[in-house]
Write a structure and sequence with these properties.
200 residues; alpha/beta; Translation Initiation Factor IF3; Hypothetical Protein Ychn, Chain: A; four-stranded mixed sheet
């Protein structure tokens, strides 16, 4: 059994190190020191068809035991466009990476107005966007009432909403993020390597 000590390591290192270990080991134990890493690693386990047992230790750290269930990739892994979620069927629209709470460069107030209009316009498009990934100050859009409403509508139409865990932690917003799942940089890069992704 391989052990990965990912304590103190920033996203996406715990995911990358664990994934590499699972390429040559059927069972892997990973140590981490925060709940965001636990969530990211649990998603990795689902993605790779592994059973994941999580143990909380008295020190406040976590031990995750991965056991590969089969060599075949999961249905999620077989999708043409990588997905940040395992739930439901993916729409066929584009993926949008939103890296700030304003749209365009120049006046900040105008940028907020434009971002609000952009997200609203997305709710009226067809096909519905496949995924909206919020990065850096873009995660704040999930908390601003004027933009949250549009993101909620997109979610109800089937769009996967994801927020960068490192970014949510930085702004102290992790506990209140309820529009979708907290993701990590490794998963974001996988999506960006797929087709039909637009960065804002």
């Amino acid at each position: 059994m391989k052990q990965v000590d990912a304590r103190t390591l920033a996203c996406p290192q715990p995911v990358i190190l664990t994934k590499k270990a699972l390429e040559t080991n059927k069972e892997v134990v990973t140590l981490v020191d925060n709940e965001t890493s636990v969530q990211n690693l649990q998603r990795l386990g689902r993605h790779l068809n592994c059973r994941v047992d999580v143990e909380s230790m008295a020190s406040g750290e976590f031990r995750l035991r991965f056991c590969r269930m089969a060599d075949e990739p999961t249905a999620e892994h077989q999708k043409t466009t990588p997905s940040l979620s395992t739930e439901g069927d993916s729409p066929q629209g584009r993926n949008f990476l939103i890296g700030r709470e304003t749209l365009g460069h120049g006046d900040e107030q105008l940028g907020r107005i434009l971002m609000k209009a952009f997200l609203y316009a997305l709710t009226e498009t067809d096909p519905t966007p496949n995924q909206v990934i919020l990065l850096n100050s873009g995660v704040k859009l999930a908390f601003d009432p004027e933009t949250r409403e549009s993101l909620q509508l997109l979610k109800e139409r089937g769009t996967q909403i994801a927020g960068c865990g490192t970014c949510l932690d930085f702004f102290g917003l992790t506990d209140g993020f309820d529009l979708g799942e907290v993701t990590n940089m490794y998963a974001i890069v996988e999506v960006l390597q797929g087709p039909d992704t637009l960065s804002l």
